[in-house]
Amino acid sequence: MSPPRCAVVWCTDWPVTAAVLAGTAGRGPQFDPSAPLAVVHARRVQACSAAASRDGVRVGQTRRDAQGACPHLVLVPHDADRDARFFEPVVRAIGELVPLLDVETPGRLLMATRGPSRYVGGDERLAERLIDLAVGAIEQASGVAAIGVGIADGRVAAMLAARRSIATGRPIVVPSSSTAEFLAPHPVSVLVPTIGADSDIVDLLRRLGLETFGHVAQLTSAQLSDRFGRWGDGLYRVVTGLDDTPPAAVPPPDDLSVSRVFDDPIGQIDQVVFAAKVLADTIEESLSDRGLVCTRLVVDAESEHGERSSRGWVHADGLASAAIVDRVRWQLVGWIDGDDPPSAGITSLSIVPTDVRHDSAQQRGFWGERTQADDTAARAMTRLVGLLGPDAVTLASWRGGRHPHDQFELVPFASLGADDRRLIPRPIASSPWPGALPAPAPSVVHIEPRPIDVVDGDGRAVAVNGRGLVSAPPARVRIGRDERRVVAWAGPWPFEEKWWTSQRRRAARFQFVLGGERGPDAYMVWLENGRWSIVGEYR
Amino acid sequence: MATSSTTAFSIRSLTFAHERTVPVHPVLVPVVGSGLVRGQTVMCTGPASMSCATALLVAPTQHGSWAAVMGVPSFGVLAAADMGVALERIVFVDDPHRVGADAANVLGALVDGFDLVVTSADVMSSLSPSLARRFATRLQSRGAVCIVVDDTRAVSADLRLDTEVSAWSGIGDGHGRLCTRRVRVDVDGRRHRQSRRDGSLRHEVLLPGPGGQLEEIDAVNVPDGSVVRLRSVP
Predict the structure, then answer these.
(1) Strand, coil or helix: what is A211?
(2) ipTM attached to this prediction
(3) Residue A522: which of B87, B168, B173 has the nearest Cβ?
(4) Is residue A37, in this structure, part of any structural domain at all?
(5) Whole-prediction pTM value?
(6) A60, A208, A377, A421 - which has most CB atoms within 10 Å?
(7) pLDDT in tens, A426-469
(8) How many domains is chain B built from?
(9) Count of other CB atoms within 10 angstroms of residue B1
(10) Pairing of strands A474-479, A146-153
(11) Chain A window 477-506: which residues touch B at a Cβ cutoff of 8 Å?
(12) Containing domain of residue A407, as a range?
């Protein structure tokens, strides 16, 4: 079953375009569209103009690196409201032709094409009309704005078509029959801007030799879910041209829509947003009680004189309470500052979730936390970072590997949240990592292995030959000045890794149980380059 | 009437100290009771000290509590994950002495922010006695639990879990692999209400059990050591 046909209108680097538009509208400093510009958020480049990108500025770079690459770079502070406000004309212009459209984020629009295509006479005609309307709406900034329009089966394919159309300058329409061929050559790195994949996972895919969508699509859904859990299943659906919406999309329960009528019309956006916060919390709470997450919702606001603003918002990852509030604010800012502002205060606000899906138990980004304990812990961690330094406060993120110290990576708390760095939970029910020793893992893992001597019954050092056989059964172990008897031992489990690089490593792994005063003690011991050392203790 | 309703209110708002607890793993309930009392210091000693401390983190982190592991760089993260600890609520913090930070402030931030603070005997013995006392007072007022791995005289523990390893199973003389470990836990402590007349209570558990988790001895079929010998032929 192929997903519904969609069109995506994508203005890349929208924050820069919005800043230029704000300047021309006299609502902010003026910027020269042809100069290198970059919008910076949390010390990282969020978007940059074409001139800046020619000089080597990249999205995600730190501010200093960007300034290093391009010394005359003009930095513009980030402003989400500005992005929303100046995107409104585009939404409005396209809304004249396609009334049912969803805003994914300021800069990107998504719509179903079935009706509109029939109305204008075909997908190609629709794509051209869309690009004309979008360009017309922001003609003052045509120097910087890069607008792409793509039509394809499914959201992701349409998004990729739109991305490619920016480079070619012409809208791209992918026929239903050739979605898979269209997707196959795309590199996996585009998963980051399109479906918001973690750059670490993309990196992992690349290290596994899966460079393009085509490579990933050759695997089966079962193999991918086995390795990446539920995310792998989603990945399979994306790369094979099924959509990233799981088939188990469920009809939303009836009682989810929430609304609030204000007895006194409200003239201030902040007050409406404050009310929206309460509504959004209600939605999130009732959805999470059912194990659901909202992926699309409609925000409806009405003024005292009956003017209305209604808009759909989508987000494939699900909209949490804070994200819903942002959408409401963006919509109101765009409405009130737009060409057709309401002539009176706002009297009612309603939020209606229209698409929900089962919460895939995906771990939330670090900042999406909810409980009070999470908030308290986050505050404490911020304080600890201040006291101890950014690298001294870490959390464990799964990475995989064959050794106990490899499987989890300690990620500095300070780096989470910035550039969307997230903690990766260990995949549930994953098969064991090839070459890893089965559980139990050592409860103490030495960062610096402790050197020891291992001797056989005659006092000679025990060695392992090239075929992985021990010269004689180990009988005694000297740790520092102590000499201890080997009660039981197992191994060797040899491994050789990174033999294709200069960091090549060969070692034989053993488990030793040594006799002790208070019962037997177990150790994980490695023999590497003829030297024995304790790498872990089962303490 | 007014008086009696006031009394009812004041009674309801009163909670006994032993009711303010963080949960413990079901297998450990016979050992330490229904939960670790908030504000107390628990010391895990003996040859299974680290596994024992890790096992105490399983239930609280799964129930939404956060834990900080301070100054224990050798903490076995994989073993903790296997045991069932919710790693997304574990924070690893460097020893303040190692980075040259003010230990008093760091300990304060830990106690304020986390329900459990795991640290090592080395870190605790490096604190000055007055700082250790202030730390204990703050633990009590904030209701956090401090878990100290290994024995130190610098801390007066409210609860001591003293471990002794009876046997490892699954490993032979050059064959098999480490599989399960029988650990005897002796409970002792000045505030332990289940203390027997001799002041201690014993219990034997599998730590780790076959999958790396903490298990009851009866619950699983313990291999009796008859392992199939599998050896490579030269």
Answers:
(1) coil
(2) 0.85
(3) B168
(4) yes
(5) 0.55
(6) A377
(7) 776 666 778 888 889 999 999 899 999 999 999 899 999 888 88
(8) 1
(9) 5
(10) unpaired
(11) 488-490
(12) 366-420
